[in-house]
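User: I've been trying to design a sequence by hand for this structure and keep getting stuck. Would you show me what you'd pick, starting by listing the structure so we're on the same page?

Assistant: Good idea, let's start from the same input. This is the structure you sent:
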């Protein structure tokens, strides 16, 4: 749950493509084109550290599925979503 909270807070990082969602779209949404990532190979960064980083530290990820293979690193992901419908939209986030 803390990872999800961190991910949601990171949505404010600039320079990201925005994925538009609405209540009429019920299927999977590919976020690859809008996802940026950061590898913390020291596993020492916390949420405050991540939020303080400039947008230039993040790398674009354009592949179909985020998969970096086996790694002991911590991977931080961010993306922007825009709900264009007047009602709440719920989706399940699946990474891997």
């Amino acid at each position: 749950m803390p990872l999800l909270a961190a991910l949601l807070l990171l949505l404010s990082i600039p320079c990201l493509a925005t994925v538009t969602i609405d209540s009429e779209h019920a299927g999977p949404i590919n976020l690859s084109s809008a996802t940026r990532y950061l590898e913390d190979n020291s596993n020492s960064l916390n949420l405050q550290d991540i939020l303080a980083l400039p947008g230039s530290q993040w790398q674009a990820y354009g592949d179909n599925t985020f998969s970096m293979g086996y790694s002991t690193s911590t991977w931080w992901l961010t993306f922007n979503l825009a709900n264009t419908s007047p009602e709440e939209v719920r989706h399940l986030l699946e990474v891997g």
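That's my pick for every position. To get oriented when you compare it with your attempt: The beta strands are 18-21, 36-40, 59-60, 74-78, 80-83. Residues 2-83 form one domain.
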